[in-house]
């Protein structure tokens, strides 16, 4: 469901639009109505609408000014502008911000429905493109994630259920039953030839591999889908009839069948965990050692624990810098960063999957280990701050949020949605509920209040400055008029009046 808001200074119009259309049947949820641009902007900060139906001519903050300010918060919002005759100059300006839908007042019901349907279809197309891009990114980093899945599973067998659930989101394990083919007596000197032959056989018979080939001492494990008993027999005969020079013992093939994929992987992890060396082969049959290498579960887990136990950001950066200052190549740096990132996240939700894909895309666009280090440092630094906050008595993201806001009061982009997606990496819905629960007020009220407190200090300190400069310093950009309106709402007078009062008080104190 898309989140919809209606903005108009005439109550009769807000009510009429709210009631004349069945928004739910069109895929919309009407989350709020607002009587002016100021009220609407606060709702945008708190409730993150997807689509806004707005009038142009409104008091305090008109429709165009609202769109301009909201654009700095979220460029993804779609707008439907309701305009009267002679207001198309406003409409032209609105096109700068991607507005495509302009309807004349009085509003025609069918025209409004058509616009809503068009926006809904357009957003669905964008989401489908994003889904395909996400699949492409996940496919690109699939093998490193499969390595990380094995390593985490081996390290935390007692928590395998949680580990499986996380990687199920990332690797999309099939829901249907899989089979494990256990090939034994494969000596090291015949391993490469055997793997090449088995790959050709699987490809020729259209047998899909659902996980890279795993090899432990004289044993190869294939995770495949065997659809018929005939295919199983054919594969078993193919394996057991293989012969190579210097082969001492005939190969054997056994099949493991399970009710679900979870049980299959759990059983495999149990079987391979007792071996000192585990190899995983990529699609080109290049072997990667899972244990006793730079990215073994013990080394990674040790590094993760050191990072988590860091008492401050400087210590954390020093640890990370030491890791990346070693002579590791670009691919190893990418792999380590992905594995550390995944280890920091114990679960993957639909929202964090988007965030993970964005991280993977950025990592694979890096052309140096330094760039990878800097990106990983920024992400893990936020994660470390979150952990320190969650380990405190409050166990909340709110102290982190408030600290960021207090240090970035001049940023126009501040909103719950931006903070959730770009700083805290959590669900905006969860953050919104947590903020109101803990602070007893909406985020927009908190933000405006502390901005006005800061504005009062600046006005008192810089009596020869201008209101436009003060407005910029507290996050109102080039909107001194809007700043004055918000200031009056929260302080009870305009900035000019406050200035004059401060000057008078200063003169009296001097006397």
Automatic annotation (TrEMBL):
CDD domains: REC_YesN-like. The modification 4-aspartylphosphate is found at residue 55. Coiled coil: none annotated. One of its GO terms (cellular component) is cytoplasm. Residues 3-120 form the Response regulatory domain. One of its GO terms (molecular function) is sequence-specific DNA binding. InterPro entries: CheY-like_superfamily, Homeodomain-like_sf, HptR, HTH_AraC, Sig_transdc_resp-reg_receiver. GO terms for biological process: phosphorelay signal transduction system. Its main location: cytoplasm. It comes from the Bacteria. Keywords: Cytoplasm, DNA-binding, Phosphoprotein, Transcription, Transcription regulation, Two-component regulatory system. It holds the Pfam family Response_reg. Residues 422-501 form the HTH araC/xylS-type domain. It is found in: Cytoplasm. SMART domains: HTH_ARAC, REC. May play the central regulatory role in sporulation. It may be an element of the effector pathway responsible for the activation of sporulation genes in response to nutritional stress. Spo0A may act in concert with spo0H (a sigma factor) to control the expression of some genes that are critical to the sporulation process. This is Stage 0 sporulation protein A homolog. It comes from Lachnotalea glycerini.
